[in-house]
Specification:
Keywords: Metal-binding, Signal, Transport. It comes from Flexivirga caeni. GO terms for molecular function: metal ion binding. Its main location: other. By secondary structure, this protein is α/β, with parallel strands linked by helices. The protein folds into two domains: about 190 residues, Nitrogenase molybdenum iron protein domain (Rossmann fold), CATH 3.40.50; about 120 residues, Rossmann fold. It contains twelve helices and eight strands. Helix 8 links the parallel strand 5 and strand 6. Helix 1 runs parallel beside helix 4 and helix 2 crosses helix 6. The longest helix has 28 residues. The chain is globular and about 60 Å long.
């Protein structure tokens, strides 16, 4: 998903903002919301005004990977909704609905990516202001500028530990009586994250500078942490990410990587495919180069954030070691 493609605002969003404003005026935050505004999300119950020690904190993650971390840290004291959670659809065409606005309006805590990836969250939050609502903008949390070229921050091993720490802080502020519980949940979360970070270090040591090709920079932060050498021109990655046509020169360079077998793995965003992606997939297959599909939103069939990241890295390792393709997890 990208800043360029996220500029597509629809009538559905305008309607949802209006509905959220009406809901805020008519209910004063005391209503109850159940279910999820997006397939695969968690449930939200209660309201922003009812986050006492005996009530679950209502939280929203703009992307389901962030919602999963909220759930892991909040545990039994938090009810979480994921806004974007379907790995089988193109997240670039996401349209916020009235249900999304209601979920955000009810939330005491929100986590969003930033870097232009989910600007719709800012618009919804402004349409239903709540001075008590805590908002974690991951871009700001990481101290990253608006010009950060790659918005897929959750693939960076530094991101979720920082998010987890901030969640402990904010959840403890909302429900101080459960602060020790949230801290213990964070310890468990970090322990479950360690196999991925350890595997990244091992991969870097055992397979230094493995040449790879990509379509867009969805998993680039992980590839960098794994010590790979991404041969695809950044200008081509940025063009595909932003929904524009890459230059003929970049396309020729990418095709040459496959034809001349200059890369050992081809990674592509399996949620967003088009003619240029299909062309590169065909060329990689023809050259016998293993293909790995990466995801922008977390697969919903039993994965946690940690197991998802480890599965992506395992797919990369299988491609390098045995030439095995994993186009879908």
């Amino acid at each position: 998903m990208t800043r360029g493609r996220l500029g597509r605002w629809s009538v559905a969003l305008a309607s949802s903002l209006a509905l959220a404003t009406l809901a805020a005026c008519s209910s004063s935050g005391g209503g109850s919301h159940s279910g999820s505004p997006s397939a695969g999300g968690g449930s939200a119950t209660g309201s922003a005004a009812s986050a006492g020690s005996g009530t679950k904190i209502v939280a929203v993650g703009a992307e389901n990977e962030y919602a999963d971390v909220i759930s892991q840290i909040g545990g039994k004291y938090v009810a979480t909704t994921a806004i974007m959670s379907d790995p089988n659809t193109d997240p670039h065409t996401f349209e916020a609905s009235a249900g999304v606005s209601k979920a955000v309006q009810a939330a005491s805590l929100v986590v969003q990516n930033g870097v232009g990836y989910d600007d719709f969250m800012d618009k919804i939050e402004k349409a239903s202001p709540n001075s008590a609502r805590k908002v974690i903008n991951v871009q700001q949390l990481r101290g990253l500028p608006d010009s950060t070229p790659n918005p897929h921050l959750w693939y960076d091993p530094k991101t979720m530990p920082a998010v987890a720490a901030e969640l402990v802080k904010d959840l403890s502020a909302i429900q101080p009586a459960h602060a020790a519980y949230f801290q213990a949940q964070e310890t468990t979360f970090l322990a479950a994250l360690k196999p991925w970070t350890t595997a990244l270090a091992t991969f870097t040591k055992e397979h230094p500078n493995v040449p790879v090709a990509t379509t867009e920079p969805v998993a680039d932060y992980m590839l960098q942490a794994a010590g790979t050498d991404n041969k695809t021109p950044w200008s081509l990655q940025a063009a595909i990410m932003n929904g524009t046509d890459p230059s003929p020169q970049d396309v020729a360079t990418q095709s040459g990587l496959f034809k001349n077998k200059q890369v050992k793995v081809f990674l592509y965003n399996q949620q967003v495919t088009d003619d240029i992606t299909a062309k590169f997939l065909k060329e990689a297959h023809a050259a016998g180069i293993p293909v790995v599909g990466v995801y922008e939103t977390m697969p919903t069939d039993g994965y946690t954030y940690q197991s998802w990241m480890l599965a992506e890295l395992d797919a990369l390792k299988k491609a390098v070691v045995s030439g095995t393709s994993t186009e879908k997890l």
